[in-house]
Write a structure and sequence with these properties.
It holds the Pfam family zf-B_box. This protein is of the alpha+beta class and 707 residues long. It is built from 6 helices and 41 strands.
Amino acid sequence: MENRSLTFSTTNGHSSPPNEGRPFSYGLARSTSTSTSGKYPPPVMRRATTSEVGVTSHGYHVPTSPISRTPPGSTGSTNPSDGSPVSRGSHCGSFKQSDSGFLDNAVPPSLSANTSSFVSSLANAGSECPKHSQEALKYYCQLHDELVCADCLAMEPRHQGHTHTRAEDLASSYRSSLLSQLQPLQEMSIEASAALKSMAARRKEISENEETVKESIKMTVLQLHRQLDSRERELIEEAEKISQQKLQHHDAHQDHLQRLTTEMQQVVDSVSVAANDNTNIILCHHKQLSEWVLESTRKYQSLPKEVFTPLQGPNISFVPDAGVLEMCQTIGSVTERQADPQRCYIDESSIKNLTVNQDCVLRLVIHDKDGKPYTTHVKGIKAEAVSTSTGSQLDVSIEQDQTKKHQYNISMVPQEAGTYVVKVKISNTLIQNSPITLNVGSVVHGTLVGDIKGVLQPYGITVSPSDEIVVVENGKDCVSLYRSDGKLLKSYSGKGKLKFNRPRGITITPSNMLLVTDDEGIKQCTLEGKHMTAFGKIGSGPLEFSFPCGLGVSNDGKIYICDTFNHRIQVLNIDLTFHHYLGIEGAPPAKLVQPYDIAFDSSGKIFVADYSDHSVKMFTPQGGFIGQITSKGENEVLKNPVSVHVNKNDHVFVGEEKNSGLSVYDSSGKYLTMIPVRSSGAYGISSDSEGCVYISDRANRRVQIFK
């Protein structure tokens, strides 16, 4: 829309002649003659002077000074011709700033009481001139601060000789300004609406919390009532039982005394009658009567005094526990304690056994601001787990531990191996050690990546801290060291009495010494085969062995040796002195039959391959029997397991004598998968820091490497 300025003048010479270079304005002049039609003559158009208009960059008129506002009680503007006051709106019933209540103030008078009247005034503002019917209020008189129609400008002298602006052009400018000013208020209104919703939600939360607390109080008191009622019955029964026992003893004593009293009274009554009433009886039987009296007197005098004394003893009483009364006053308290996110954390010791398609459970520990366990149910716990490689998010469930109420189990099932970032929030605030990173390993180590050929009947196998592969070659009576690429580094057999004799099991101690079992006992040496010593002998006592096989070092540094034909495991101290036996006590399956190999997971749990029992036995670090693994999958069972190994991810690998494959389990004994190893008996299993799995393929004279 074009922005034009309008000026109106009569034909008495007040209008200016055309002047090039000045902005155009249109002059509407009323003729001194009166048309026969009674209508106004056509307007005369002229240019406005620069003093009459404000010029924008586009050459159109815009008011150059702020809009004048007339305070209440003012008489209005003055007439430019004579200086006399002009009453605004006295001639034109137009929409004015002062009348509307809107343009009088930059901000509405109130956001409460005056808002309704303010909005009403906007709605009632007219678009037609009330004086000149059906004439639109198209122009704005800056001098008189009024909206006027074309007839008003033509007819009213006070509207002539000065600048007027098209109302729509000025309104457009004001509209843009108003909308710009309105934006912050709109944003605040949106924020206020959101705050109201939050307040409503908070109010609902407070009410629900109140009901929850009241229900908790009722349940606590109800449980207390039940316990008190139960204890009341027990105490009453106990009091009745003791009283009944006392009454039984008392009644028996009383009955006995009653019989004695009756007997004595019979003697007294009989002798008294005879002595007073019958002379013949006295004369004839006085001797017998006298003896009767004397005998009865002696009899009753000989009775102990207790017979004539009520049974004594303490009376029962109830002694209330003062603590109970205090407890009733302190059965609980209503408090505003709440979980403090900065005091809550994921117990990182619970993070283990992270494998694809298996439950991953994190333990969340809840404390309040004082660091005390917070057992009240927390509603605002949220957790998310996101893969760093794909960005996919895992489904996460959160459940409160029913035994330890201040702990929650956060469960998820990773669908693929990789790294996951887990964030845990309480009331939208991250907990102490969030986010945490989880490394999820693949279960299937089924890709053959290499092998080491020419190993004569490989048996036990282990990997050194520097990832050297140490293999027992049973067919050569030696130990060989290889690089991961298969290059032989060293091989040694020992000398003289220290020579290996059909070696089988092997392990590395924390001091980096090798321990090797053979037919004669145990050999010890360095990784290079130096400083070799021997201990143990054939027999059935401590440090005596019969066909020792696999061995290993526990998390606490103890050495466990499978004493196979003695049906036990010997446990030695780090200095190779005897400590105790494992697997000799209890009934099957806790009792070992032919232990062949042994391994330990990160928690210290013990796994024993029991050859003749076709199982892998599981024991606690203290030696308590937990259970056994006997199957692999749904329809297959273990058959003569000869090797067992636990890798860094706590995956348990089991090799069998004749089956060509390794069964893989988690540390609880749950079957995971099978590695399709083409071998005839995996007599040794180990793994390195990169996750490679090494298998002694005895019949094929090689070590296979899988990943």
